[in-house]
Design brief:
Layout (H helix, E strand, L loop, with lengths): L4 E7 L3 H9 L2 H5 L3 E8 L6 H8 L2 E4 L4 H11 L4 E4 L4 E2 L4 H11 L4 E8 L4 H17 L8 E4 H6 L10 H9 L4 E10 L2 H6 L1 H16 L4 H9 L2
Parallel strand pairs: 1-2, 1-4, 2-3, 6-8
Antiparallel strand pairs: 4-7, 5-8, 6-7
């Protein structure tokens, strides 16, 4: 039986952060779980091509935009299962066993991990705690929690929309609560964006953006608003 998992990582000038993310994938290779690694780049000026060559990844070039990049990676994937992973997010130790268990026990459902930040700040725990509560209460994890799902299911719900923001929320909402399950363990994602913008400010902006999206605001307008200083 061939390895079932295609790992898709969108990148944009992410070379400095990719090392730990790629290193954490090694146990999945050793366990015969990963069929291929696909890096989908949105126009980097760093050494992403050299990194892809070094790790044996397929490199796809697209226009910038996480929704566009994730959709392109999924279209190229040949695995029966897809694992969408942000370039600054590390899977937890033993993730390969938890993913395999999910694949065997829940072949028709998506999965995600809990969230932690690589920061000891009190606000890091607060923001991560809210993210985990949101995911548990509303079955609404974000993309930085690593999304695992069958390729067939991904296609059934229409895949990632080619939008500049909220692509993960759009996909999860199509899946529905009953087809989204929490996997044991926590991914660790970079706190750099929160440190740069301020925990309260960025956390508040994220929450406001989600609320406006549910009220019908367009992803294009939300993306423009999100980029404002």
């Amino acid at each position: 039986m061939s390895a079932p998992l295609s790992v898709v990582i969108p990148t944009l000038d992410a070379a400095e952060a990719l090392g730990p993310t790629l290193e954490a994938l090694v146990p999945g290779l050793a366990a015969g779980l990963i069929r291929e690694l696909i890096l989908v780049d949105g126009g980097s000026s760093d050494e992403i091509e050299a990194i892809a060559d070094a790790v044996g990844a397929e490199l796809i070039r697209t226009e910038p935009g996480r929704g566009v990049q994730l959709a392109a990676g999924a279209d190229a994937a040949r695995g029966n299962w897809l694992l969408f992973l942000h370039g600054d997010t590390r899977l937890p130790p033993g993730w390969q066993d938890r993913v395999r268990a999910h694949i065997e026990a829940h072949p028709d459902a998506a999965g995600y991990f809990g969230l932690r930040f690589d920061s000891e700040a009190a606000m890091a725990r607060v923001v991560a705690g809210w993210a985990n509560l949101r995911a548990r209460l509303f079955a609404l994890p974000y993309g930085d929690q690593a999304l695992l799902l069958p390729n067939v299911l991904y296609c059934q719900v229409g895949g990632y929309p080619a939008v500049p923001l909220m692509e993960d929320v759009a996909l999860i909402r199509r899946l529905g609560r009953k087809r989204v399950r929490r996997l044991p363990g926590y991914v660790t994602t970079s706190a750099e964006r929160y440190v740069r913008a301020g925990w309260v400010r960025r956390g508040g902006r994220n929450l406001t953006t989600l609320a406006l999206y549910f009220l019908g605001a367009s992803p294009a307008w939300l993306a423009e608003r999100y980029r404002r200083p």
